[in-house]
């Protein structure tokens, strides 16, 4: 099929790295591996954020109308695609382009990782959410990567077509590295920004402060606008216990992970966390909170340990327990890598995604 791909929150060509950009790129790669012809339909970022207001929404709709006109003229000249694929439409970043061009050209419409929350029906977001809900109801299929998101869509739109796809990564860089874990070496990879990321750094610092007598060493990969605030959270630890490695390329991240004994990241509010899958593919057991979408990618007792959200004592105890048990770490490391390859790899996802599209579109046509 010829597929027009659009990610209203963050284009796969956006300059700033994030989980959203990475997943958008990986979905495109999955579609290409299944031999579909994929083009990026638009780079328009339809994100209003917490400061959403009527003027901003009006400006965004005007920009979307310009994109609709551009695509319409383009497709009338060279032919339209078969399918519009929208990744991650939600109340802060709705798809204001796809539904219109699909109606004009008779295209099938598909979403992946769409979400709906009735708690967000406030102010300008009410209209934006209504648009998301309308697209979900009219889609040939809505592909959900977590049980939580699928349940939210089902509650809001019981008649919507919904399918499950497990979160996945391009695992090659991480499985290619031979695991050479250094005892007591902890690793975390995360952006340093406000909200859930800062909350997770705070929880990590609190947990590690409770096991200061354990000779752990932490490598932190990542950067962001709150770097100073994050580093201040760890200021009480002795010199040399933490390496601040900054932002690194994925190949470098894979190398760093290969030398880790444990991946530690509480995961406050994580949709699922691609970094958890990368760590497990590299052969690291994970210690995280049993919160949000984290249990979708970390199997408690098999590929890591999940503790009660916010319980710093339990989180610290889980880290200490695994650091002190090399045999258990080794067992979990093998399980983690095998599980990612079998269930969360790019080849597995490409096969599953293609099957979803063919079944869903076959039922619609």
TrEMBL record:
Which Pfam families does the UniProt record give?
Glyco_trans_1_4
**InterPro entries, per this entry?**
Glycosyltransferase_grp1 (IPR050194)
SUPFAM superfamilies recorded? UDP-Glycosyltransferase/glycogen phosphorylase (SSF53756)
Q: What is this protein called?
A: Glycosyltransferase family 4 protein
Q: Which organism is it from?
A: Shinella lacus
Give the taxonomic lineage as stored in the record: Bacteria, Pseudomonadati, Pseudomonadota, Alphaproteobacteria, Hyphomicrobiales
